[in-house]
């Protein structure tokens, strides 16, 4: 079991560029989510999904899009990168919508110049 | 709304005990605790569910006071490996959202 995998590990973008952060899990978890982590702010929920075809917004969804076409994959798209999106991004999955342990991926460190 | 953690930081000598608190203004269904070491992903410690009992493993345990919407994480006889940032995450049960606190940085020294 690879668990939760994320690619790339590091990325540098210029303002206005777009990119997709990849997330995949092999545990057959229905629930997946994206967080961003900034110094002193903890982990903030961007978007989440309770199953294929179902997504919803978290606390800080602006500037990000998601889709969930399969149980395994949950990519995060930045449509037009801004310096405020410089952060570490974590993807997580869980076997339960509520009350389930979250398994985190290794993270993607994104810098927007 | 983020749960509030206290203290923000604590330094311990090996073998000392620590308590980290997490409080919410909303009625909670569950409280999660995670530990994150520098440059790594958060790692699950335990979940406390509404109506459940206190949990623990090894020298780390936690309690959940539903009436006060508070949880406490207890680290006893701390070890160097306990160093890291501890996050609580709360669920209200009405939505599939886990909201994290801003973290408590714990450093254990010799």
Outline:
Chain A has strands at 4-7, 10-13, 19-25, 31-38, 42-51, 54-57, 64-66, 76-78, 87-94, 103-104, 108-112. Chain A is an all-beta fold and 113 residues long. Chain A binds chain B through residues 31, 33, 35, 40-45, 48, 50, 56, 58-59, 90, 97-107, and chain B through 2, 29-30, 32, 34, 40-44, 47, 49, 87, 89, 91, 93, 96-103.
Structure write-up:
The complex is a heterodimer of chains A (113) and B (110). With 113 residues, chain A is an all-beta fold. In chain A, 0% of the residues lie in helices and 51% in strands. Chain A has no helices and eleven strands. In chain A, the strands form two sheets. In chain A, strands 2, 4, 5, 6, 9, 10 and 11 form a seven-stranded mixed β-sheet that branches. Chain A has a four-stranded antiparallel β-sheet with strand order 1-3-8-7, with no helix packed on it. In chain A, strand 5 and strand 6 form a beta hairpin. Chain A is globular, with a radius of gyration of 13 Å. The termini of chain A are far apart. The model of chain A has no long low-confidence stretch (mean pLDDT 95). With 110 residues, chain B is an all-beta fold. Helices cover 0% and strands 54% of the residues of chain B. In chain B, strands 2, 4, 5, 9, 10 and 11 form a six-stranded mixed β-sheet that branches. In chain B, strands 1-3-8-7-6 form a five-stranded antiparallel β-sheet, with no helix packed on it. The mean pLDDT of chain B is 90. The chains are: A mainly beta (113), B mainly beta (110). At the A-B interface, strand 4, strand 5 and strand 10 of A face strand 4, strand 5, strand 9 and strand 10 of B.
